[in-house]
Design goal:
The protein is of the alpha+beta class and 178 residues long. It has two domains: 1-51, no CATH class; 53-177, no CATH class. Helices cover 50% and strands 12% of the residues. The protein has six helices and eight strands; from the N terminus they run E-E-E-E-E-E-H-H-H-H-E-E-H-H. The longest helix has 24 residues, at 154-177. The mean pLDDT is 78.
Length: 178
């Protein structure tokens, strides 16, 4: 007779408004004590006890980099058209980076790191530019890249989607009141 052994591990995290109130809490469930942690990953999102979005953005950019590197050969290929490469960017890389954007309140530092990531991917898609005066290849400047790619940058995408989400939540509340 085989008896399955199930070991449950519990983790708890206390979230404080005051960042100096870091006390550890132990919770017991069925005589099993919980482990107190400062951050953990839940449904793909990194949650921290300081309610900081910085770790979540770092995690999203790390996942975006992994996704970018997995399709890097496609993005640098001369066999694929630029519009197909942009579709790859919009459907594969961008959703990985902006997952969970509804809860983000972006500071300038996070906006900058998101823009840097987006510019780097788009620069890879459009490739280098030939400077006819110096007769050498160089990286595209951000202004030149924005002329070639007319869609908004990643920060504007996040902000517009957050506004759309906010309108959706407001409509849900209106329907609930009826």
């Amino acid at each position: 007779m085989c008896i399955p052994l199930v070991v449950l591990t519990y983790k708890c995290m206390a979230i404080y408004r005051d960042q100096n109130a870091g006390r550890s809490h132990n919770i017991k469930i069925d005589n099993n004590s919980s482990e107190s942690v400062e951050q953990f990953k839940y449904l793909g999102k990194t949650l921290t006890n300081q309610s900081s979005i910085q770790e979540e953005i770092k995690s999203r950019l790390k996942s975006g980099n992994a996704c970018y590197h997995s399709v890097q050969n496609l993005l640098s290929s001369r066999l694929l058209a630029k519009n197909l490469k942009i579709k790859i960017h919009r459907t594969i890389i961008l959703p990985v980076v902006v997952y969970g954007y509804e809860t983000w309140s972006l500071a300038l530092m996070e906006e900058r790191s998101l823009r840097v990531f987006g510019n780097r991917v788009l620069r890879k898609i459009f490739g280098p530019k030939r400077d006819e005066v110096r007769r050498e290849w160089r990286k595209l400047h951000n202004e030149e890249r924005s002329d070639l790619y007319s869609s908004p940058n990643i920060v504007r995408v996040i902000k517009s989607r957050r506004m759309r989400w906010g309108r959706h939540v407001a409509r849900m509340r209106e329907k609930k009141d009826v």
